[in-house]
């Protein structure tokens, strides 16, 4: 079976200076490829399973969990590494305490998730136990991954678990997060985890056949989109943010997750989780769901984190020339183009770069602290030492430590 994609090539996985793994599969030449070998080469896979797949009217669907774990065990036999992102804590907790509707208040949601999470983990643990496969629970918040050193710690833990052949099972730490610090939902979390571990593919299992050109609940004539090459904002218009009865974020969130994955050069497939043997069939090359293929990799290594996670510690307001240099020429930020410094931050802090009208241009890590940038702003780099007594570098932000917020993307 042939998949028509514009350009596909695989490279060996590489590690950057900090040990980040790069996804192996990048789109690169003009030939079509056969799906079985393409999927076969996706060694490291992040598998996200939605509440809509894992829970039914009577709560957690253990049969489904067994069916999925059987397939994951088979994929591992074939040499794939699997990192599982499992939703379902709130939905299964709800049934446990007899709630008919999703809890509305944050403390109720958190308490329900606490009840459901142990139940959920127990079910996965039991299902993988048949194959003598160990699992490990990882609960994360956005705050955890926003700090670079904690992000790297999470990566080291995941790498060690994979090295030990243990299946990491990740969920958002619902019992401590409030709306402001949430990932949003597990679709976003799975895309971030994929960037973190340098996954070769994300499989997102949900309760529809894939992405339709409009919401199939309201449009009977909706058409399933089979392959998407590169991201386009048009895709977001296809999907609504309204989830099913137990989900969070809906299809809109999955398309946003695909956007994140594609920017990091990682393909993603949205597939029907309840379809019999869906994972095995996908990896055998059957055309199922919607496959999103990257056209180019915008971010590598540290930039994957920079583009997705850090909490800015301050702002730099730039003159139009500096904005142009960053946006159009991919240059580093020099002090001469900085008009204003906001906030108090140290060396290495993530800061937002804004144009004078307040538009967000990008995010970068600074080479100087706020008080120093205040002294050197508007000056030539040759004057840095005279102004602050030393010179770390000519640039306030080096281009290797900067990402544009809305980089140009090629799509559909
Ligand atoms: N364009 C679309 N294509 C497919 N499904 C869509 C679309 N727009 C909205 N949806 C809805 O999104 C739902 C899946 O999202 P969600 O309920 O969050 O699932 P999950 O629990 O798997 O994360 C589907 O039930 C579907 O009805
Ligand atoms: N962390 C929540 C799931 C949040 C979520 O994203 O749900 P879903 O849209 O079903 O993937 C839970 O375990 O219930």
Radius of gyration: 22 Å
Q: In percent terms, what proportion of residues is strand? A: 15-25%
The whole-number mean of residue pLDDT values reads 89
Total individual domains: 2
- Main sheet properties: 8 strands, mixed
How would you explain this protein's 3D organization?
The strands form five sheets. The chain has an eight-stranded mixed sheet, sandwiched between helices. Strands 16-15-17-18-19 form a five-stranded mixed sheet, with helices on both faces. The chain has a two-stranded antiparallel sheet with strand order 1-4. The protein has helices at 35-40, 51-54, 62-77, 89-97, 106-129, 142-146, 148-163, 186-197, 233-238, 250-263, 278-284, 301-308, 320-329, 370-376, 384-388; strands at 2-3, 9-10, 25-26, 33-34, 44-49, 55-56, 59-60, 81-86, 135-140, 167-172, 201-206, 227-229, 268-272, 290-293, 314-318, 338-342, 350-354, 360-365, 402-404. The protein is elongated, with a radius of gyration of 22 Å. The chain folds into two domains: 2-304, Acetylglutamate kinase-like (Carbamate kinase, 3-Layer(aba) Sandwich), CATH 3.40.1160; 312-404, Archaeosine Trna-guanine Transglycosylase, Chain: A, domain 4, CATH 2.30.130.10. By secondary structure, it is α/β, with parallel strands linked by helices. α3 (62-77) crosses α5, α3 packs parallel to α11 (278-284) and α8 (186-197) runs parallel beside α10. Bound molecules: adenosine-5'-diphosphate and the ligand N[C@@H](CCC(=O)OP(=O)(O)O)C(=O)O. Residues 50-52, 87-91, 113, 171-172, 174, 185-186, 243, 247-249 line the site of ligand VHF. Residues 314-397 form the PUA domain. Residues 9-23 have a biased composition (Polar residues). Belongs to the glutamate 5-kinase family.
């Amino acid at each position: 079976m042939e998949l028509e994609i514009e350009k596909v090539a695989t490279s060996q996985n590489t590690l950057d200076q900090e040990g980040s793994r790069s996804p192996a599969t990048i789109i690169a030449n003009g030939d079509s490829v056969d799906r079985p070998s393409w999927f076969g080469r996706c060694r490291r896979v992040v598998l996200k399973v939605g509440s809509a797949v894992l829970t039914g009217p009577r709560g957690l669907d253990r049969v489904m969990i067994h069916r999925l774990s059987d397939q994951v065990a088979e994929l591992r036999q074939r040499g794939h590494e699997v990192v599982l992102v499992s939703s379902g804590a709130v939905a299964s907790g709800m049934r446990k305490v007899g709630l008919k509707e999703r809890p509305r208040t944050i403390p109720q949601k958190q308490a329900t998730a606490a009840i459901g999470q142990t139940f959920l983990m127990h079910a996965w643990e039991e299902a993988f136990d048949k194959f003598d496969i160990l699992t490990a629970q990882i609960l994360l918040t956005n705050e955890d991954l926003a700090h670079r050193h904690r992000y790297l710690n999470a990566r080291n833990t995941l790498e060690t678990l994979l090295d030990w052949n243990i299946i990491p099972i990740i969920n958002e730490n619902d019992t401590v997060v409030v709306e402001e610090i949430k990932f949003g939902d597990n679709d976003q979390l799975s895309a971030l985890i994929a960037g973190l571990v340098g996954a070769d593919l994300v499989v997102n299992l949900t309760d529809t056949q894939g992405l339709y050109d409009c919401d199939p609940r309201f449009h009977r004539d909706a058409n399933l989109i089979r392959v998407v090459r590169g991201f386009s904002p048009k895709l977001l218009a296809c999907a609504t943010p309204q989830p099913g009865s137990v989900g969070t974020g809906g299809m809109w969130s999955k398309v946003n997750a695909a956007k994140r994955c594609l920017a990091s050069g990682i393909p993603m497939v949205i597939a029907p989780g309840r379809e019999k043997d869906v994972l095995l069939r996908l990896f055998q090359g059957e055309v199922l769901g919607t496959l999103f293929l990257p056209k180019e990799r915008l971010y590598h290594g540290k930039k994957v984190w920079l583009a997705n996670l850090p909490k800015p510690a301050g702002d730099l307001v730039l003159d139009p020339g500096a904005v142009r240099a960053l946006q159009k020429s991919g240059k580093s930020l020099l002090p001469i183009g900085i008009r204003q410094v906001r906030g108090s931050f140290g060396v290495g802090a993530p800061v937002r770069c804004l144009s004078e009208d307040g538009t967000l241009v990008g995010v970068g890590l600074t080479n100087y602290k706020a008080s120093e940038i205040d002294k050197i702003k508007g000056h030539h780099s040759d004057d840095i030492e005279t102004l602050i007594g030393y010179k770390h570098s000519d640039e306030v932000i080096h281009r290797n430590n900067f990402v544009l917020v809305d980089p140009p993307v090629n799509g559909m």
